[in-house]
Amino acid sequence: MASFTRSADEVPQHQHNSDRMRRAETWHGRSEKATSPAEKFIFLWIAFNAAYGSEVMTSDPAARLREREKFERFLQEIAKRDHERELEKIVLYRFPGLIRSLLENQYVFQPFWSAVQGSSGRTDWSRRFKGENREAVRALESGNLPTILRIVFLRLYTLRNQIFHGGATFGTGWRRDQVRDGSQIMASLVPVILKVMQRDIENAPESDVWGKVHYPRINDDPE
């Protein structure tokens, strides 16, 4: 029977940081061998999830909100530390058209599905959709990186939920535009996000800004 040599509280912060980066990099590496946009998106999201923190599966809406807020705060920290402005170049200059295409897709806007499920008004989602898209366009035009990252990843989070929770049909459903666009956007953003994190951790190995991983390595054995 496997045992552990230390509790989660005894794991030093530098190990949390190094384990987080190693796990994220392995999934990112696997994404580069993917043979379809859907497969690539899945591995890239796992890499992103490993970077900002493991998700706790729950049906509690408040917990899901906290999870969303967690990666929103994570993206704010990333944008703040992107001193070489690599993310800005991708979002504002390389892929603005692709990002606009994703934003115009109602099927990755969660309030649309809430309306379909009857938990909000049928017309309210449309007003919110247009309003958030106007906010995104203003962010693109003004160079507001944190805002556009937040909105883009909220849409990608809805796409992630559709795929991970079986809300899309394998084959036909997965060839939709949102999977193709989401995969391309993630393939450009995730490696830069990991690079920004790695640079920050190398400068401050004991920094707790990235938090503690939910599944720490509690012995010296390799994973």
Describe what you observe in this structure.
By secondary structure, this protein is mainly α. It has one domain (11-203). The chain has helices spanning 13-31, 37-52, 61-81, 86-94, 96-103, 110-116, 124-142, 145-164, 177-203. The relative contact order is 0.20.
Query: How much β-strand is present in the residues?
Result: under 5%
**What gap, in angstroms, lies between the N and C termini?**
16 Å
Biggest sheet, in brief?
none
Stretches with pLDDT under 50, minimum 5 residues: none
- Helix and strand composition category: mainly alpha
Identify the quaternary structure here. Answer: single chain
The radius of gyration over CA amounts to 18 Å
How many helical stretches? 9
Strands, total number? 0
Counting structural domains, the number is 1
Percent helix, as a range, is: 55-70%
**What string, H for helix and E for strand, traces the elements in order?**
HHHHHHHHH
Gross geometry: globular
